[in-house]
TrEMBL record:
Pfam families: peroxidase
Residues annotated for Ca(2+) 2 binding in this entry: T193, D237, T240, D245
Protein name: Peroxidase
Listed EC numbers: 1.11.1.7
Keyword set includes Glycoprotein: yes
Species this protein is from: Nelumbo nucifera (Sacred lotus)
Binding site for heme b: H192
Plant heme peroxidase family profile domain: residues covered: 24-318
Disulfide bonds: C34-C114, C67-C72, C120-C314, C199-C224
Length: 318
């Protein structure tokens, strides 16, 4: 009995150690195993944005859509195979998420330098931060040490990522389910200060919503007819779609949110109105809250320790 319980206690102690030390994310996770990891990612992200400005927005969104589906585990990067269905054809992702080739490029640069060390999930977290910084937004320290999933869940991608037709209470519920507060949700939505959206995602807003600026609605209706042109693009922030600033919130005050969900955050009497106004008047408060919320989002249920794997190719299981 004694040796057994000793083994047992030892195991519990090790499990406890893992929980408090080794298995938590840390900013210096690669400092001895791949000291150049951060600069490799940063250089590749900057090169990709120089080639196409929009890709910074696309990389930021990839991290969001990864984290909201079973945590930040690189699951969104897995391709479908004959025996495996990934998340890429889920409604919020299909014909919409982009940047996979940039992630492949970053991964292959990392594999050359330190094979089998840096996870695909961590690449997404770093690329999101580096994109925001390069486009003029705030910086933050990225916690690292996520491992990659050995599975994906299309059903969860469809149910957990909020739709652009959602109302405020649904948005709050979706974010709360991931441990994110209303303030986190409003700050993270400021991501829509960069990037583009397809006609199909804002059609019902520009024809049916009454809380949209008339001039904006008219000009969008010319681009996005009642039917057809589904993939026609418009800036989520019509003013400065390639610059990470607080124009997103300024637009909301004027009824110029592009998505129905954007305008849900400000309607003159919604519970989030005051936060939107705060971010309009105080851009550095927005930057601070955004950075904090990104770290929080990046901490959603990571795989650590010996869970999952470090994929060699982000698109497939080892
Ligand atoms: C609050 C709930 C959210 C909803 C309903 C939502 C919905 C959408 C939709 C419909 C698009 C356009 C996609 C397309 O037309 O292909 C989009 C784009 C985008 N979203 Fe969100 N989003 C939300 C929150 C977030 C968050 C939390 C982030 C990042 C932390 C984010 C980052 C982005 C970016 C950067 C783009 C532009 C991507 C590009 O140009 O490739 N969104 N979002
Ligand atoms: C995804 O998009 C493709 C190409 O447009 C389309 O054929 C397919 O039906 C879509 N899948 C889903 C699940 O919507
Ligand atoms: C996938 O996600 C759905 C919805 O969250 C859940 O009901 C289901 O159990 C998950 N499937 C697997 C295999 O984990
Ligand atoms: C928000 O949308 C959900 C789902 O469509 C609906 O059940 C709920 O009644 C709506 N809430 C408000 C306040 O409109
Ligand atoms: C506007 O709303 C109605 C009723 O919900 C819907 O049937 C129609 O498709 C919507 N129009 C557009 C352009 O989305
Ligand atoms: C504004 O949004 C709140 C919360 O979703 C809702 O209760 C209220 O009816 C909306 N007011 C207007 C004027 O649309």
């Amino acid at each position: 009995m004694a040796p057994y319980s000793l083994v047992c206690r030892t195991l519990i102690i090790f499990a406890g150690l893992c929980a408090v030390a080794q298995c938590k994310l840390s900013s210096n996770h690669y400092s001895s195993t791949c000291p150049e990891a951060l600069s490799i990612v940063n250089n590749a992200v900057i090169a990709a944005i120089k080639k196409e400005t929009r890709i910074g927005a696309s990389l930021l969104r990839l991290h969001f859509h990864d984290c909201f589906v079973n945590g930040c585990d690189g699951s969104i990067l897995l391709d479908d195979t004959a025996s495996f269905t990934g998340e890429k054809t889920a409604v919020p992702n299909n014909n919409s998420v982009r940047g996979f080739d940039v992630v492949d490029d970053i991964k292959s640069r990392l594999e050359k330098k330190c094979p089998g060390v840096v996870s695909c999930a961590d690449i997404l977290a770093l690329a999101a931060r580096d994109s925001v910084v390069y486009l003029g937004g705030p910086s933050w320290t990225v916690e690292l040490g996520r491992r990659d999933s050995i599975t994906a869940n299309l059903t969860a991608a469809n149910s957990d990522i909020p739709a652009p037709t959602s109302n405020l209470s649904v948005l709050e519920t979706r974010f709360a389910a991931k441990g994110l507060s209303v303030k986190d949700m409003v700050a993270l939505s400021g991501s829509h200060t960069i990037g583009l959206a397809r006609c199909t995602t804002f059609r019902s807003r520009i024809y049916n919503d009454s809380n949209i600026d008339g001039t904006l609605a008219m000009s969008l209706q010319r681009k996005c007819p009642r039917s057809g042109n589904d993939n026609k693009l418009a800036g989520l922030d019509a003013q400065t779609p390639t610059y990470f600033d607080n124009y997103y919130y300024k637009n909301l005050l004027k009824g110029k949110g592009l998505l129905h969900t954007d305008q849900e955050l400000f309607n003159g009497s919604s519970s989030t109105d005051s936060l939107v106004k705060k971010y309009v008047g105080n851009p550095s408060k927005f930057f601070k809250d955004f950075a904090k919320a990104m770290v929080k989002m990046g901490n959603i249920s990571p795989l650590t320790g010996s869970e999952g794997e470090i994929r060699f190719n982000c698109r497939e299981l080892n």
